[in-house]
Amino acid sequence: MQEEIISRAATQAMQLLEGMIARPSFSREETAVADFIEDFMQKCQLNPQRAGNNLWCVSPTMKSERPTLLLNAHLDTVKPAAGWKHNPFTPTYEGDSLYGLGSNDCGGGLVSLLMAFMLLRCDENLPYNLIFLASAEEEVSGKGGIESVLPLLPHIDVAIVGEPTGMQPAIAEKGLMVLDVVARGKAGHAARNEGVNAIYEALADIEWFRSHHFEKISPLLGEVKMTVTVIQAGTQHNVVPAECRFTVDVRSNECYQNTELLDEIVRNVKSEVVARSTRLNSSGISLEHPLVQRAVAMGKKPFASPTLSDQALMPFPSFKMGPGDSARSHTADEYIRRQEVEDAIRCYCSLLGS
Q: What percentage of the chain exceeds 90 in pLDDT?
């Protein structure tokens, strides 16, 4: 594709991203930015469809004999971290870098994928049908996000998610399960030998979570990882606590469904265990998939990602590949470089083009 076309698309992408940054779009509060993107899509005659704050466009050249590829990125952001030197809602350039909340996660990926979709959508010779989806509530894995939209879309065979990966393909990512655990004892006066200390009852289970190793180890994602992250017990210094509550963050690999891990955990600890959700399983795609192989032929290096995305809610093969750096996400003074966006548009067009 001509470099002049890619350069113009990158300029348009950055202008769109500036408008996104200027409209706060916290999870479940994305209406203003969704309205803005929908208006842009309508002006570009992309015939957008909308459900809640989720927006999607379907290629006009859909053919039943071709597999369908979903291009997805999210339009919501976390709230600003402490320490911003720039105004997080004022798009600000320093040289090639655009600062603003959501610029890296995941505005850069969203505008790059949208531009690639616009450039490719009418190509009759594409190997894939294309659907572009800007989804909501990704940062909280909300029910009003991608999970609510997938049943409304045509059948999808594979997806690219535009999370920041330095444009390297993340072909596997860990899943997430959060556990609320309660160890119970019996209240008593701390000065006398009475009561059952719930903190002491919890210690053995906390140690089990720290030291247990699940048998199946992924060649890409490694072991399942469990971390006790929050603990609460006691009301005052002279009362033996009757209850100790703690939270466990479980990061699953593709060898297990979250329900399998939960069953093994319940069998091994004495405390009461309740999973907040088991729906965010590990996800990925085969190294042999044609899209991955084409990326490898372009010099890309597949890797495994420890962070969660909307892939966890996709019942089809998927991988992450987007501009920016995951290390910038959720940090003060988040930014994306214009060159990263331009390179991403060029890369997507090369990867997907005929």
A: 97
* CA pair distance 158, 147, nearest whole angstrom: 16
Beta pairing partners, 318: 159
In this structure, are residues 40 and 119 in contact, taking their beta carbons and an 8 Å threshold?
no
Q: What residues contact 11, with CB distance under 8 A and at least 6 apart? A: none
Closest to 183 measured CA to CA, from 194, 198, 197: 198
Crossing angle of helices 3-21 and 108-120, in 10° steps, is: 140
Q: What is the pLDDT of residues 307-354, one digit of tens each?
A: 889 999 999 999 999 999 999 999 999 999 999 999 999 999 999 987
Q: What is the C-alpha separation between 85 and 245, in angstroms, rounded?
A: 38
Q: How many Cα atoms occupy the beta-carbon half-sphere of 97 within 13 Å?
A: 12
- Over range 124-150, report the average pLDDT: 96
What number of other Cβ atoms are within 10 A of residue 269's Cβ? 20
pLDDT digits (tens, 9 = 90+) for 189-238: 999 888 999 999 999 999 999 999 999 999 999 999 999 999 999 999 99
Per DSSP, the three-state class of 138 is helix
Alpha-helix runs per DSSP H in the chain = 3-21, 31-43, 108-120, 146-149, 198-211, 258-268, 290-297, 338-352
CA distance 190 to 151: 57
Exposed e or buried b per residue across 191-208, where buried means at least 16 C-beta atoms within 10 angstroms of its C-beta: eeeebebbbebbeebbee
